[in-house]
Amino acid sequence: MTTVPAAVGEQAGALDAEDALAPLRDRFLLPEGVVYLDGNSLGPLPAAVPPVLTDVVHRQWGEGLIGAWTEHDWWDAPVRVGDAIGRLIGAAPGRTVAGDSTSVQLFNALGAAAALRPDRTLLVTDPGHFPTDRYLAEAVARQRGLRVRQVRPADLERFLAEEGDQVAAVSYSPVDYRTGELYDLEALTRAAHRAGALAVWDLCHAAGAFPLRMDDAGVDLAVGCGYKFLSGGPGAPAFLYVARRHHENLHTPLTGWSGHADPFGLAQDYVPAPGIARARIGTPPILSLLALEAALTAFDGVDLEQVRAKSLSLTGFFLRCAEELLAPLGFTAATPSDPARRASQVSLRHPHAYGLVRALARHGVVADMRAPDILRFGVNALYTTHQDMLTAAVRLRDITVAGDYDPTPQEPGAVT
Amino acid sequence: MTTVPAAVGEQAGALDAEDALAPLRDRFLLPEGVVYLDGNSLGPLPAAVPPVLTDVVHRQWGEGLIGAWTEHDWWDAPVRVGDAIGRLIGAAPGRTVAGDSTSVQLFNALGAAAALRPDRTLLVTDPGHFPTDRYLAEAVARQRGLRVRQVRPADLERFLAEEGDQVAAVSYSPVDYRTGELYDLEALTRAAHRAGALAVWDLCHAAGAFPLRMDDAGVDLAVGCGYKFLSGGPGAPAFLYVARRHHENLHTPLTGWSGHADPFGLAQDYVPAPGIARARIGTPPILSLLALEAALTAFDGVDLEQVRAKSLSLTGFFLRCAEELLAPLGFTAATPSDPARRASQVSLRHPHAYGLVRALARHGVVADMRAPDILRFGVNALYTTHQDMLTAAVRLRDITVAGDYDPTPQEPGAVT
């Protein structure tokens, strides 16, 4: 028990020693003694958040009262925070707005996309997509008299080439949330455009994890959440990106007053604001939104190419540990070994995934699982170390060898 | 300047001396020296909020990490907070859900209402309704092939009696947000039902301000915000009430994963949860939602009939002050003097409303205005005193007499 093979132990130490991003870990308040590999479900608390929230609550709200909307510029927070997220997803200022949940933003994005292709009858999405994406594709299709086709990412280019002429929009994630497989967002975007369709991307498992190029890749619309790799806090506001070329003709279904051209004019008719502001809906949850804004400062001065390189180092190292320590115990990797096809997580399969993840948590390693048999280990290069990965692999080995877990299959109650 | 007529001065003191709700003021952290009469735009900071937020951020999120969703029962917060709001609007448990913005909840409510009356072609709303309500009625109508008719509340009963057979739903507020006039929610609900239509109410300016009886009045659906009389903080999550009889057939347009019968099963098809939980959409903004939950404890043990009585005393007294001190200066009351037709605000008309409200703020009295000529003074019986009302009237008189304000008409940048 707890013996660590010398080779991987030395490798972990060497990789951490040469990690230029190591100081960023101090930007997070991680609990002592916990290896946190579930930041792809809920990012940990950034150190910048508590003082900002204290200021927002006591000084801005408590003392500023209604005047804080202008005095502390709460009103512009959705576009200001949107721009901060835009910097992480390759979007120029004025193309991203923060607010609402991913589900609501998806509804707005898919509705707007369908309206931009009124002569087409299909929405295409991934049968392996996160459920809310599929549910909302169905909802938008039902309301607009469209049909939904489910096509796996691997088959999408062929499908679009052969049957793409009726496709209004494709709705995909660049990351399979279960396996951590990375799809080629830019190639699939080009394939959608060749078919005359729009490309709508869900960046929940991508934003903040690796470089993205919304503008340069010609993505039409994208959404994502604020609480995974962006570490904005539980249920942090989501975001919506809209390519500049679509702004003038963007008609979102949720025409709330905040998206009006003159929101305080309280006019009789809805006139959408120019630019991305027309994608605003109602009054945003300021406490959660400004917590997200503070959290995003953890990325200040950070090069996402370096984040990507370290993330691949972490996941590659973990795959090596898994091969050496866990494969003999019946674990298999669900995540591609090819770095180009690997997002910022490693998923392992084991029939006792649920019990093993629970036991790991008791031993200070927080991961999560997806039914029926996937253990997910998310890495965030801003705070994860190679030693963390080794600890996770060693403890998982020890728990498995000792049989120190409940082998009953069971559904977990966790949030992706 | 600053002389106070003895009669109103004595009356203020006497009314405050016999105010049984006076101790509730300690439940709010009001800034020193400020008379805050804009709690109908943004409620002040309740004392219960900061310690809860500190706990939520540091212990629940910071230390609990992903496990907090179950350990601290974040998952059930939307229905738990919904039930706490339900107690204030006359709704039994399990009929109200908190989350999202009023605009999003309205879209869901109006979409669900239209779906419950699929054979009807009209949505009816108030031309004086808050803009987002009208914009979203238009949005839902457009998406479902309906038409919107705008009918003033005073004409609604007659309209429904004569032309109600094509009305799917009526969408109204019991309070005119500009004048503070109170409409008869229960009589209008009955009139809608006589026509076979559903009654959808926007309670933004009502919830927490006076007693409401959603269940007993037979209201079909209702929405409201968390940041006015509920004092849940800027952009606090909104709520949706749905009458028990509609739960089984409730089909909201925004079918996000949180409303699924088995949200963690991540099933292929959307199956709505039983009960009010099916009206959940995406992942809720937990920081803002738990701040709202803490804010609602300001109502613990409070009798809303007493709140109503004190509110009428405050607004009645202010109308008397206005009559004595301000009418001679050209101010007229836009709020009905009949208590049965008065919500929890007093609106005065003056052509220089904008400059006067700005000047008042400089003199420590925070009110707001609505273009072109309305000064709004909102009262919240949980913390407003009769002395506050007198101070507001006296300072407004003094500013007006001294001409100590900018008479330029101008649009304000404030949030209702």
TrEMBL record, chains A, B:
Gene3D superfamilies registered for this protein in UniProt: Aspartate Aminotransferase, domain 1, Type I PLP-dependent aspartate aminotransferase-like (Major domain)
Annotated GO CC locations: cytoplasm
GO biological-process terms attached to the record: anthranilate metabolic process; L-kynurenine catabolic process; L-tryptophan catabolic process to kynurenine; NAD+ biosynthetic process; quinolinate biosynthetic process
Superkingdom of origin organism: Bacteria
Modified residues (N6-(pyridoxal phosphate)lysine): 228
GO MF, one example: pyridoxal phosphate binding
Reaction catalyzed: 3-hydroxy-L-kynurenine + H2O = 3-hydroxyanthranilate + L-alanine + H(+); L-kynurenine + H2O = anthranilate + L-alanine + H(+)
Binding site residues for pyridoxal 5'-phosphate: 102-103, 130-133, 202, 205, 227, 257, 283
Pathway: Cofactor biosynthesis; NAD(+) biosynthesis; quinolinate from L-kynurenine: step 2/3; Amino-acid degradation; L-kynurenine degradation; L-alanine and anthranilate from L-kynurenine: step 1/1
Record keywords, A-Z: Hydrolase, Pyridine nucleotide biosynthesis, Pyridoxal phosphate
InterPro entries: Kynureninase (IPR010111), PyrdxlP-dep_Trfase (IPR015424), PyrdxlP-dep_Trfase_major (IPR015421), PyrdxlP-dep_Trfase_small (IPR015422)
Enzyme class (EC, first level): hydrolase
Signal sequence residues: none
Cofactor(s) in the UniProt record: pyridoxal 5'-phosphate
EC number of this enzyme: 3.7.1.3
Subunit structure: Homodimer.
Family: Belongs to the kynureninase family.
Database matches in NCBIfam families: kynureninase
Function: Catalyzes the cleavage of L-kynurenine (L-Kyn) and L-3-hydroxykynurenine (L-3OHKyn) into anthranilic acid (AA) and 3-hydroxyanthranilic acid (3-OHAA), respectively.
PANTHER family: KYNURENINASE
Name under which the protein is recorded: Kynureninase
Gene: kynU
